[in-house]
Amino acid sequence: MADFTRNTGSSSSSSGSSHEGHNMGNMDNMGMSSMSSHSMIMTFFSSTKTPLFSDSWTPKSSGAYAGTCIFLIILAILLRALTAYKSVLEQRWAQRHARRNIVIAKRNSTGSQTDDEEEETRAVETFVGWGPKPWRWSVDLPRALFQVVLTGISYLLMLAVMTMNVGYFMSVLAGFFVGELAVGRYARGS
């Protein structure tokens, strides 16, 4: 088993990265020579200078780090609120679909329908069924766009957690907690 704690003489701790003190040893032995300048950390750590999403978003002070954590809390609350709102929209779309009436004209024995019989032979039925609903621009396009937004926010939060920064991780959890307290009762099946 490889020993990742020993210093192999590499200068990764002097590179000024936000992961100082987490020398992973000589990564070339593992076939990871194409890694970026940041070493790969597999344990949680606490640093106030961890980049978020790009190197240009690196907090330079404790205040900037707190602002970044607050941003992550708000982003997680937003994701939870949008998920609950999508559930509400799905319920509205299902109710609208259930109220949609289908007009069925009954034909006489010859297969034709006369104008006199038209008023008598029409039946109005409400759609009842569990099968797939017909495709509609007014429902499926907004649903797809909404899902793209939800997926994008989810991946941004996943990337924040994958930095392995404890503050970022706790901020995302706090945002989900507050979001669930605020709007969780509106979400069904999520």
Automatic annotation (TrEMBL):
A GO molecular function held by the record: copper ion transmembrane transporter activity
One Gene Ontology cellular component annotation held by this UniProt entry: plasma membrane
Transmembrane segments: 63-82
Source organism, top-level taxon: Eukaryota
Main location: membrane
Pfam families named in the record: Ctr
Family to which this protein belongs: Belongs to the copper transporter (Ctr) (TC 1.A.56) family. SLC31A subfamily.
Region Disordered: start-end pairs: 1-30
Comp. bias regions, Low complexity: 9-30
Keywords tagged on the record: Copper, Copper transport, Ion transport, Membrane, Transmembrane, Transmembrane helix, Transport
Protein name: Copper transport protein
Membrane topology: Multi-pass membrane protein
Upper taxonomic lineage: Eukaryota, Fungi, Dikarya, Ascomycota, Pezizomycotina
Organism the protein comes from: Ascodesmis nigricans
Location(s) in or outside the cell: Membrane
